[in-house]
Structure formats: C-alpha cells, structure tokens
Design a protein that fits this description.
113 residues; globular
Length: 113
Amino acid sequence: QVRLVESGGGLVQPGGSLRLSCAASGIIIAIYDMGWYRQAPGKQREWVASISHGGSANYADFVKGRAAISRDNNKNTLYLQMNSLTPEDTAVYYCKPVATDFWGQGTQVTVSS
C-alpha cells in the first residue's frame, strides 16, 4: 500500500517562502524518480519539479530559479522549497513517483496579501 502525505502548505504573502514535505510509505523513494505537481482551481495538474533517484533535478519554467527539490532518503521524504511566491503559485501541491499514478491528498498553498 503506497501512501504519500504532503504537508507544509499554508497561507503566505507574495514574496514569501514555503517548504513542502512529502512523507512516503509503502515505497522506498530512494529507488524512484520523484516529482512535485500542482493543481489550481479550474486547471489541470501540472508538473512543477522532479528529482531522479540519482539526485539530478529538473524544474518547470515557471518555478526555475526559485524552487529547489530535494529528498532525504533516510527519512523517506521528498521536499520542495519554494521562494518568491506569487498568487499564481496558489494551488494544491502533490508529490508522486514520476513513473506511477500514486497521488496523496495534496497540501494547499495560498499566496495572498
């Protein structure tokens, strides 16, 4: 049974930062390429960032330069540090192994004054 529990979201002001976490169970994330995705109201899910099991990272253009994906294999947890947040970043953020269709409940990020 795969379980992915996203956390760390909340209400932040424009220009603020958040560190999102994805605690995994039922899988060992060290052997997977892992990704962060987001979905805003009325929009489809979109890819945000991914990190290979070897540690190489890739980012969507809209977060490049202000986001950092990382993993702690000992804690079986994936992270997404997001800086310089704008209202356009408001969405529910999800994590999953890139090659799977396993989704958690997501964590809400709201960027507003």
